[in-house]
Amino acid sequence: MTDKADQQPQQQQVEGHVPCEEDVLEAIFNPNMPFGSATQEPELHGPADAKEDTEEEKRMREKERAAIKLAEDQKLDEALAAFSELIKENPSRAAGYNDRAQVYQMKGDKDSAMKDLDYAIEKCELSTKVAQQVYAQRGVLKRLNGDTEGARKDFETAGMYGNAWARHEAVKLNPYAALCNQMLKQAVDKLSGKAPEAQAAATKGQNGDHTTSTPSS
């Protein structure tokens, strides 16, 4: 959600922790992301992070929360109209495009969602908290569309802005990392006696495949 407080490195959840409203809404708006997705200290900082909340910004956030509630109640057409009105009022505010893209995703309209995310990234000033959401969401869409390399780059960027989940996804999509992991696994298996040759020999022994020697004449 774009109305939560500026992100801080998130502490691990402890037993009995009750997720805050923002986590619940983020889980609804981002079904492809883990509940209460973790953040970490960002390497990149958006230029708008230090901007003070004005009365106008507070008013926009209040209307944004109302639109989010509509989406939570599955009133998607009403939510879409509400976010479109917010964008009309402030067309340079990236959060509006990110939120509307999430509603488009909930409606199954991936093309419209992608257009909003592209516009937010290319035309709007991104704060750290919005940037990590926008790039991660676009990465999910690109992966769904089969653009693995594009998804990996967007996940990497979201990770640099502090989205730990996106950084993890970027590593998973890195072919070199996958190759290194495979080679490491093979090396560990070999050292632990689980190399293919050792496994084959063990299986042969377990099956009782013994040869009987013939006495020489």
Automatic annotation (TrEMBL):
<feature type="region of interest" description="Disordered">
    <location>
        <begin position="1"/>
        <end position="20"/>
    </location>
</feature>
<protein>
    <submittedName>
        <fullName>Tetratricopeptide repeat protein 36</fullName>
    </submittedName>
</protein>
<dbReference type="GO" id="GO:0006570">
    <property type="term" value="P:tyrosine metabolic process"/>
</dbReference>
<feature type="compositionally biased region" description="Basic and acidic residues">
    <location>
        <begin position="42"/>
        <end position="62"/>
    </location>
</feature>
<feature type="compositionally biased region" description="Polar residues">
    <location>
        <begin position="204"/>
        <end position="217"/>
    </location>
</feature>
<feature type="region of interest" description="Disordered">
    <location>
        <begin position="32"/>
        <end position="62"/>
    </location>
</feature>
<feature type="region of interest" description="Disordered">
    <location>
        <begin position="191"/>
        <end position="217"/>
    </location>
</feature>
<dbReference type="InterPro" id="IPR038906">
    <property type="entry name" value="TTC36"/>
</dbReference>
<comment type="similarity">
    <text>Belongs to the TTC36 family.</text>
</comment>
<dbReference type="InterPro" id="IPR011990">
    <property type="entry name" value="TPR-like_helical_dom_sf"/>
</dbReference>
